[in-house]
Amino acid sequence: MRIAILSGGLNAERDVSLRSGRRVAKALRESMPEAEIIEVDLNGEFLDSLGSATGPKSFDVVLPLIHGVIGEDATLRSLLEIKGIPFVGSSAASAARSFDKGVASGLVPKGSAPKFVAFPQSFFREMGAPRILEAVIAGIELPLVVKPISGGSALGVRLCTEAQQVAPALVDAFGYGDRVMLQSAVNGTELAVTVIDIGGEITALPPVEIVPVSEVYDFDARYTAGATEFFVPSRLSSDVIKRVCDYAVTVHKSLDLRDISRTDLIVDSLGAIWFLEVNIAPGMTETSLVPQAIEAAGLSVGGVFAELVAQAVARSS
Ligand SMILES: Nc1ncnc2c1ncn2[C@@H]1O[C@H](COP(=O)(O)OP(=O)(O)O)[C@@H](O)[C@H]1O
Ligand SMILES: [Mg+2]
Question: How many domains does the chain have?
């Protein structure tokens, strides 16, 4: 069986994706030694590697591990779908739903997404920044979080506790994408909940509790060993953990996701669950959350991905 692990990509998360690709390849090759890593970069060779439009398929199955644009939106997945190449993970249509945090927020259980507004850079420019900022800050109220609506790895994400922090935060966020979201900041315990969907059974793995040493779970805190403390299982009560697991399974089903997803959320001091986002190609690096959840469940990264690969092949036949 020819298996292609696609990693890299053209955005700020390229290096993270290359690390995810190497980690999964190493684990998967224990049972599937033929798995090949294909780096997606600017030269377009990867498109050729998928085979000509009318010729035979070049791979039996693809495992997309590209984060952000191309990998987690509908781009790559729709190309694979029209070429008839089976792949692990959510369909192009589901990817489009989850990639836009505003769209995803409208599909999760009612009342669980923090209040937000979203707009493109052109609107900001044409309507005049001061007018928009005044209206938004009055409506959302401080503290608020500014972030690219389709970002990743916390790039361009800033917490604003004062009004004058919002404009520079927007400039930063627009550096990562044309649309931004200003969202009410939630205070509480942050959790990442992995869901795996194998053989018709949709199961949440033990939630990973995230406590950044420097208070913000930013890019450095994510990829520097020791910069974040993780608790798996989470220290929250078993009742809260159960609700959080059920919630992540509901998100997976509500967005019609497939194979694997990771829901990022915050549980506040009253026990309410707040949705941040759901990832369909979650990070798989040495410090990433999903590998920790897989191990906490008593499973192995290689074992889970081997099953997902086999399931993707079976889906197409
Ligand atoms: N509304 C919010 N309230 C509090 N913290 C937030 C909020 N939105 C994001 N964050 C923080 O920023 C981080 C990144 O935000 P997230 O929406 O998950 O984007 P990314 O796709 O970059 O991971 C989160 O892990 C969390 O620590
Ligand atoms: Mg996140």
Answer: 3
Backbone angles phi, psi at 113, to 5 degrees: -100, 130
Is 264 close to ligand 1, i.e. is its CB under 6 Å away?
Answer: yes
Question: Residues of the chain with pLDDT > 90: what percent?
Answer: 79
Instruction: State how far the Cα of 305 lies from the Cα of 88, in Å rounded to an integer.
Output: 9
Q: Are 33 and 90 in contact (CB under 8 A)?
A: no
The CATH number of whichever domain residue 50 belongs to comes to 3.40.50.20
Contact 202/252 with Cβ under 8 angstroms? Answer: yes
Is 67 close to ligand 1, i.e. is its CB under 6 Å away?
no
Q: Which range of residues forms the domain containing residue 158?
A: 116-184
CATH code at 155? 3.30.1490.20
Q: Is 297 in the pocket of ligand 1 (CB under 6 A)?
A: no
- Ion ligand 2 contact residues with beta carbon within 5 A: 264
Q: Is the pTM of this model over 0.90?
A: yes
For 109-147, the pLDDT digits (tens) are 999 999 999 999 999 888 888 888 999 999 999 999 999
Last residue of a domain, one of 140, 159, 184: 184
